[in-house]
Design a protein that fits this description.
single chain, mainly alpha, Rna Polymerase Sigma Factor, Chain: A, 68% helix
């Protein structure tokens, strides 16, 4: 079953059965069914980790955020009313944990070693259109991805969250607004500011992005 289940109104009637199945699974979780919760984790653990990694750019930090996310979900699943889709609620939890960790780190600054960005194969495939890329094309794609990730990492936390959710996770304005608990208009204006900031940061790398 795909990670896209549990999003009423997004994919239409074709997903009704999947949505009903997920709602039943969540109800079992609310009753303390550990088997059901393990199933829920399996459905979303990769998606949660990927989102956390795109925010933190660190595998260990992403693991920590993902682990804390499922602990919080386990402790608060009874509060999930279904007003928004489950995945929207899940993204809200990940975002809150990430922002909380950013605040804690600012409160206790520490010097960290420069980290190498390790790219996923899927990222390279998305960057390169040729199904059989040359080594030079792969290297160029990796460099573009690394430059973009470093630029996103310099954005303020809320802007980074919005850019990742909209451009990398494919969330709609409405879903981002629900996850961040803010008006859609605010999401749009802040995302526009984030794009402008990102464009400025990438200005010196125009040759890598075909501009």
């Amino acid at each position: 079953m795909t990670d896209g289940v549990g999003e009423p109104g997004v994919r239409g009637p074709a997903t009704t059965g999947a949505q009903a199945d997920e709602r039943a699974l969540i109800e079992r979780c609310k009753r303390g069914d550990r088997v059901a919760f393990d199933d829920l984790i399996r459905r979303y653990e990769r998606r949660v980790y990927n989102f956390a990694y795109r925010l933190t750019h660190d595998h260990n930090d992403a693991e920590d955020v993902a682990s804390e996310t499922f602990v919080r979900i386990y402790n608060s699943i009874g509060n999930f009313r279904g007003d928004a889709s489950f995945v929207t609620w899940l993204f809200r939890v990940v975002t809150n944990i990430y922002l909380d960790e950013c605040k804690r780190r600012r409160a206790r600054p520490q010097q960290s070693l420069e980290e190498m960005v390790e790219l996923e194969e899927s990222s390279v495939r998305r960057q390169v259109e040729d199904p059989s890329p040359t080594p030079a094309q792969v290297a160029e794609a990796r460099e573009r991805t690394a430059i973009l990730r470093r630029a996103i990492a310099t954005l303020p936390e809320y802007q980074r969250v919005m850019v990742v959710m909209y451009h990398q996770e494919g969330r709609s304005y409405e879903e981002i607004a629900a996850s961040l608990d803010m008006p859609v208009g605010t999401v749009k204006s802040r995302l526009n500011r984030a794009r402008l900031a990102l464009r400025d940061r990438l200005a010196e790398f125009q040759e890598h992005f075909g501009r």
